[in-house]
Amino acid sequence: MASGTVTSSEYISHHLTNLTFGNHPDHGWSLAHSAQEAAEMGFWAINVDTMGWSIALGVLFTWLFRKVAKTATSGVPGSTQNFVETIIEFVDENVKGIFHHKNDLIAPLSLTIFVWIFLMNTMDLIPVDWIPFIAGEMGVHFMKVVPTTDVNATAGMALSVFALILFYSIKQKGLGGFLAELSFQPLGKWMLPFNLFLELVGLLAKPISLALRLFGNMYAGEMIFILIALLPFWAQWVLSVPWAIFHILVITLQAFIFMVLTIVYMAMAYDHH
Description:
By secondary structure, the protein is mainly α. It contains nine helices and three strands.
């Protein structure tokens, strides 16, 4: 909750600024103490909080699923095993319904995307002041705990999927076949420049749509939580609880959409025209 001499704009700016480490022109390699310093560090600066939380949640996902796999029983499953099996079956059904080719990577990739993004999105349900306050008491200036509200994280995941799309498109069709699809569709070889323009726009739109859809929805959700935190205490409870309940749907839906679009794009990489 904003208090003391901190203005509303300062409060919002603080909660939307990442803990950034980079090479500052004046201070060398250090943590940024303001958004301006972070911007001055340039492209090679790293958002430490985004990396830290995303890696920690990835490790949590890996540890939990590995533990369940090692202790799985064919008898009556426990609640954790039942929960994990439900998620795996849900992802597997979506993969089988969309991807009609043979590739052992797609199902594990889809499972990782869905669960990992869901866990990162779920961090948005933690009250906005709790972790930044604890970090502040430890001398850490900024702490954003929702990795998917950082476009660098969503763009990184989208570009990784895009690299797989290009790899399997060339692997399945050959470089010549892939270039032919870009050049001769949909209007034939005599319209090559126009075809190439249309196909390149569609191709480049895939990672952009993946990255910005997830980032935009989660950033907007976090912003609403921050704005609610600026209200009087009674209003916070009246508004935050219904929004948090609704936001559970947004959290799950965004993870699902990213997973489904990944499967669809990978299926398109395999399809021959």
